[in-house]
Design goal:
- By secondary structure, the protein is α+β, with helices and mostly antiparallel strands.
- The chain has 2 domains: 201 residues, no CATH class; 150 residues, no CATH class.
- It is 42% helix and 16% strand.
- Strands 3, 4, 7, 8, 11 and 12 form a 6-stranded mixed β-sheet that branches. Strands 1-2 form a two-stranded antiparallel sheet.
- The radius of gyration is 27 Å and the shape is elongated.
- The chain starts with 13 loop residues before the first helix and ends with a helix.
Length: 370
C-alpha cells in the first residue's frame, strides 16, 4: 500500500500579506537611506545621511533610578509604508500609509448609521503619531504636501471613501496633523500588480488628490526658511562661479559677490516689509519682542510667492542700464510687474508697502549694482 502526503501552505495572518503587497506596489522608501530620497538633505540631517528613513523615528528610553541605568535600544513606531512621490513639476508629497486588512462599512440601524469593521482606536492614534514622528523631517526637508491614509482592500476601488479623525490629536501643541483618509483599493488589481512585480507609477490614480494637504508649519520663520529653497539653486550656481574665478586667480570684489547672490538679498529685503504688511508689525524687531505674530493659514504660499518675486526682480534689475537703475520710477514699475498676479502678496505693491519696497530695493541697487 502506498501513501501520499499532502502539504498545505497558507497563513492565518493575511493582514501581513496585504501589508507586503501595498508596500511593494507603492514603492515604500522606509528602508531607503536619507541621501537617496528626493530634495537632497537639509543641514540638520546631513550627519544622518546614511541612516534609513525608518531609523530616524525616536525610540523610547527606559530608565531605572537606583542604580541609574538606561536602555534605548527597544522597539518604536513603525509605519507600514512611506511613499514619496512628485505631485507637480517641482514638489513632492510625503505619504504616510498604513495597510489595513479591514472591511469598513456604514450600516443603517433604526435610521442612524453605524460604522462596522473598522480598525481600533489604537490604530488611529498610532497613525497620527506616525506623522508626528516625521513632522520635523517633513518640515526641514521642505516637503510641500503630506498625506495620512489607511489602505483597505475591496472588490472594487473607492479612492475617496472617507476619513477618520480625533480632535484631540488633530492639533497637538502648535502642530496640526492630517486627518486619516480611508482609501479602498481594488484587491484583485493590487495582487495582480504584486505577482507581476510591477510598481505603481501613477500613484495619483489610486488615491484621492483631495487628500493631499499642504504642509503648514506653524512657525512663520520656518516657512520662510523652507522657501529659501526656491532660490537655493541660484545661490549654489553663484558659489560655483565664484570658486571657478578664485581658482583662476581672479580677485572677487565684495560687491561682485553680493551681485551673484542678488535674489537671496532681495528676498531678505522683502520679508521684513511682508511681515509688517501682513501682521501689522515686524515680529523680528527687538521693540516688538513681547508680541507674537498671528499665524496665517496661507503664509506658506506667501513665502513661495516672495521667493518667486525675488528671482523675477533680480532678473529685471540685471537687464537695466545704469541710468535706469538710478530711476525710482523704473524700479517701481518693475516691482508692480513682478508682484502682479501673485494673489497672496499683490497687496504689497500698493500704497505705503510699495513705497517701502522701492526705498529698500533702491538702497540695495546703490550698494550692489552701481
Amino acid at each position: 500500500m502506498s501513501y501520499q502526503n499532502f502539504s498545505l501552505y497558507g497563513t492565518n495572518s493575511f493582514n501581513l500579506v496585504w501589508e507586503k503587497v501595498c508596500a511593494e506596489n507603492f514603492g515604500s522608501v522606509l528602508d531607503k537611506k536619507l541621501y537617496e530620497l528626493p530634495l537632497g538633505l537639509s543641514e540638520d540631517y546631513e550627519a544622518s545621511k546614511n541612516e534609513k528613513l525608518i531609523s530616524i523615528i525616536d525610540k523610547p528610553q527606559w530608565h531605572k533610578n537606583n542604580p541609574y541605568i538606561t536602555d534605548g535600544k527597544v522597539d518604536t513606531l513603525k509605519p507600514d509604508l512611506i511613499c514619496i512621490y512628485p505631485c507637480d513639476d517641482t514638489e513632492y508629497c510625503f505619504g504616510i500609509y498604513d495597510a489595513k486588512y479591514y472591511c469598513i462599512e456604514f450600516n443603517e440601524i433604526n435610521g442612524k448609521y453605524k460604522v462596522t469593521g473598522q480598525p481600533g482606536v489604537g490604530d488611529v492614534t498610532k497613525q497620527y503619531l506616525y506623522q508626528l514622528a516625521y513632522d520635523d523631517f517633513i518640515t526641514k526637508q521642505g516637503y510641500k504636501y503630506v498625506q495620512n491614509m489607511f489602505f483597505c482592500p475591496q472588490e472594487s476601488a473607492e479612492p475617496d471613501y472617507g476619513y477618520v479623525d480625533m480632535k484631540m490629536l488633530h492639533n497637538i501643541g502648535d502642530k496640526t496633523l492630517e486627518n486619516i483618509a480611508v482609501v479602498k483599493l481594488c484587491a484583485e488589481d493590487m495582487y495582480d500588480l504584486y505577482l507581476q512585480s510591477e510598481q505603481i507609477t501613477d500613484i495619483k490614480s489610486y488615491i484621492p488628490s483631495v487628500a493631499i494637504k499642504r504642509v503648514y508649519s506653524t512657525n512663520f520663520a520656518n516657512r520662510m526658511m523652507a522657501y529659501l529653497k526656491g532660490i537655493t539653486k541660484t545661490s549654489q550656481e553663484a558659489q560655483t562661479k565664484m570658486e571657478m574665478k578664485s581658482e583662476r586667480g581672479k580677485l572677487i570684489h565684495p560687491k561682485q559677490i553680493k551681485r551673484e547672490l542678488g535674489a537671496k538679498l532681495i528676498y531678505d529685503v522683502i520679508c521684513p516689509i511682508a511681515t509688517g504688511a501682513f501682521y501689522g508689525f515686524n515680529p523680528y524687531e527687538k521693540e516688538y519682542g513681547n508680541m507674537v505674530a498671528e499665524d496665517m493659514g496661507n503664509s506658506y504660499e506667501k513665502c513661495e510667492q516672495i521667493a518667486d518675486v525675488a528671482i523675477e526682480i533680480e532678473k529685471h534689475i540685471k537687464e537695466l542700464s545704469e541710468q535706469e537703475l538710478l530711476d525710482e520710477a523704473v524700479v517701481k514699475v518693475i516691482l508692480r510687474q513682478c508682484f502682479d498676479g501673485k494673489e497672496d502678496i499683490s497687496s504689497m505693491a500698493t500704497g505705503n508697502s510699495l513705497d517701502k519696497l522701492v526705498e529698500k530695493v533702491m538702497e540695495l541697487i546703490r550698494e550692489v549694482y552701481l
